[in-house]
Amino acid sequence: MIKILFFAQLREMLELESLEFTLSEGISVGQLKKQLAAKGGRWQLMFAEQEVLVAVNQVISDDDCVLTAGDEVAFFPPVTGG
């Protein structure tokens, strides 16, 4: 089981702050994104229409990062400054 957190516009889009996800052994962040997008609707839009950054255990990660039970995965939009 992993905990997934959603921040900023992603939280608003999904109307969801977090969820628990049963993990398939050896799944990568990229595979997790595909599984979530397969839910359709807002989930699909979240990953299809905008760049989504991810942190695993509070460390910025990429789609190749392999997840293990107990990980915390956070999805958030790119941050811009000005």
Description of the molecule:
- The chain is α+β, with helices and mostly antiparallel strands.
- It has a single domain (2-76), classed as Beta-grasp domain (Ubiquitin-like (UB roll), Roll).
- 29% of the residues lie in helices and 26% in strands.
- The chain has helices at residues 8-14, 29-37, 41-48, and strands at 2-6, 18-21, 53-56, 59-61, 72-76.
- The longest helix is centred in the middle third of the chain and has 9 residues, at 29-37.
- The termini are far apart.
- The mean pLDDT is 90.
**Element string (H = helix, E = strand):** EHEHHEEE
Within the CATH hierarchy, at the fold level, what is the topology? Ubiquitin-like (UB roll)
Strand content: 25-35%
Question: Spans with pLDDT under 50 lasting ≥5 residues?
Answer: none
**CATH homologous superfamily caption:** Beta-grasp domain
Average pLDDT, rounded to a whole number, is 90
CATH architectural type: Roll
Helical run tally: 3
Rg = 12 Å
Count of the separate structural domains: 1
The percent of residues in helical segments reads 25-40%
Number of strands: 5
The order of strands across the largest sheet is 2-1-5-3-4
Report, as a whole number of angstroms, the end-to-end distance. Answer: 38 Å
Q: Determine and state the CATH class.
A: Alpha Beta
* Global shape: globular
Summing up helix and strand content along with how strands pair, one would put the structural category as: alpha+beta
Biggest sheet features: 5 strands, mixed
Keywords:
82 residues; alpha+beta; Ubiquitin-like (UB roll); five-stranded mixed sheet
